[in-house]
């Protein structure tokens, strides 16, 4: 699968999985179809079932069939309400205790969607089959869809198992360690989908600078920039024989009418007339805006989620530095993973290897600032948090190359200054000084020193 197709699939997947309704709705439709077809199958095969199977399937009269189906339907709608209530409580807990940005992580939980789908499908199937049960006093021949009633019973048993597994899953999901791990895995997936590894054979291009005569591209709407259709934008730039710079990165909030980027001719001349109008329209169609940030192309979104958990843990109302330390550990692993990719502006070239499109992307320094700056300010008085920040810089120092080593050194200088302003005792001060030396030694040793 090509990188562009992977990005498209992830964008669609992110949009669908963020909603709780698609999978349960599909399950309901499937249950209605089965509820109609299985009784029709009963009419054809009921008198020809093997003896072994005949003893297993439902053998009651129409009244017993109605009782079973009614019990299944009524109990499953109650269980579904309970499941939905527990999910809502979990969402409230995640929002208030950790971060509102975690709500997308829970709504995208496939296990929750499958569980709701099983419950609703069982309820719908039982209700649909109930229509086909006929008693002799209702006119005509009595009919009991034995296979359908048996299937409804099996689905009810599966729902009971699903409920037990859902409760176990829910108790695991509300743990902060599980949340942090899920966020890190999603962020790592975003990195792999949207970025190129440093050791890849793909060519690199110099970032072209817009000339003074470049035309301004303005945003056609307001909202978070969620994705950019790179292929469409590249085709439009080639057709206009132009270069396009999108100066706003995914995740940033764009206001209608503000500068989104610039465009200029491939010979550094101005663009004008119909070519510029078509290019502006293509840019407006290529840039997707939404009401909230997503992880489809937003490389910094996962870092923002982890940092929000750390900040919340360090707030006076929560005061949970242990959670902050755990969050910084996951942020450290995420930064180390990001250092293996080509960060910074992304340059797209045409078939003749001429740069055509420049897309703004965060550098490692930007991501490091995002992860370190606020926890350093909010946890300045806690030695454990400060120690973990030193550990984060030491972990990252053995992964970065010469280009990014300056960013780590700058964060170390600022962390040292923060520690110097704190009223620490002699033991804590000596410990911080030793941790600072470890970071400097790791920086001096260079990448791979841990081996």
UniProtKB/TrEMBL annotation:
Keywords: Membrane, Transmembrane, Transmembrane helix. The chain crosses the membrane at residues 20-41, 71-94, 106-127, 147-170. This is DUF2254 domain-containing protein.
């Amino acid at each position: 699968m090509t990188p562009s197709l992977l990005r498209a699939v992830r964008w669609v997947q992110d949009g669908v999985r963020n909603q709780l309704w698609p999978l349960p709705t599909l399950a309901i439709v499937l249950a209605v179809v089965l509820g109609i077809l299985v009784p029709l199958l009963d009419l054809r095969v009921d008198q020809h079932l093997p003896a072994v199977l005949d003893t297993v399937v439902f053998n009651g009269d129409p009244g017993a069939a109605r009782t079973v189906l009614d019990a299944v339907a009524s109990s499953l709608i109650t269980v579904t309400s309970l499941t939905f209530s527990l999910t809502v409580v979990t969402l409230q807990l995640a929002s208030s205790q950790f971060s509102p940005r975690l709500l997308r992580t829970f709504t995208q939980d496939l296990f929750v969607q499958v569980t709701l789908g099983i419950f609703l499908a069982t309820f719908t199937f039982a209700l649909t089959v109930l229509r086909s049960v006929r008693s002799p006093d209702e006119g005509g021949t009595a009919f009991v869809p034995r296979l359908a009633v048996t299937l409804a019973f099996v689905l009810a048993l599966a729902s009971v198992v699903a409920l037990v597994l859902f409760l176990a899953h829910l108790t695991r999901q509300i743990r902060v360690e599980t949340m942090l791990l899920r966020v890190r895995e999603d962020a790592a997936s975003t990195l792999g989908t949207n970025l190129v590894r440093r050791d890849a054979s793909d060519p690199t291009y110099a970032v072209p600078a817009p000339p003074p005569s470049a035309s301004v591209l303005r945003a056609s709407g307001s909202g978070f920039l969620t994705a950019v259709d790179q292929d469409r934008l590249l085709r439009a730039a080639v057709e206009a024989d132009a270069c396009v710079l999108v100066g706003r990165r995914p995740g940033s909030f764009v206001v209608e009418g503000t500068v989104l980027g610039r465009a200029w001719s491939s010979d550094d001349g101005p663009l004008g007339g119909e070519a510029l109008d078509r290019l502006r329209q293509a840019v407006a169609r290529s840039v997707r805006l939404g009401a909230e940030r997503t992880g489809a192309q937003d490389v910094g979104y996962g870092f923002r989620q982890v940092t929000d958990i750390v900040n919340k843990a360090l707030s006076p109302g929560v005061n949970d530095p242990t959670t902050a330390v755990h969050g910084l550990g996951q942020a450290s692993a995420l930064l180390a993973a990001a250092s293996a990719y080509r960060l910074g502006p992304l340059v797209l070239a045409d078939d003749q290897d001429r740069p055509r499109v420049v897309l703004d992307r965060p550098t490692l320094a930007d991501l490091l600032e995002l992860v370190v700056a606020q926890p350093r300010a909010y946890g300045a008085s806690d030695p454990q948090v400060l120690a973990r920040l030193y550990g984060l810089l030491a972990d990252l120092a053995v992964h970065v190359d010469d280009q990014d080593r300056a960013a780590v050194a700058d964060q170390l200088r600022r962390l040292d200054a923060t520690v110097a302003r704190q009223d620490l005792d002699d033991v804590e001060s000596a410990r911080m000084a030793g941790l600072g030396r470890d970071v400097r030694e790791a920086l001096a040793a260079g990448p791979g020193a841990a081996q």
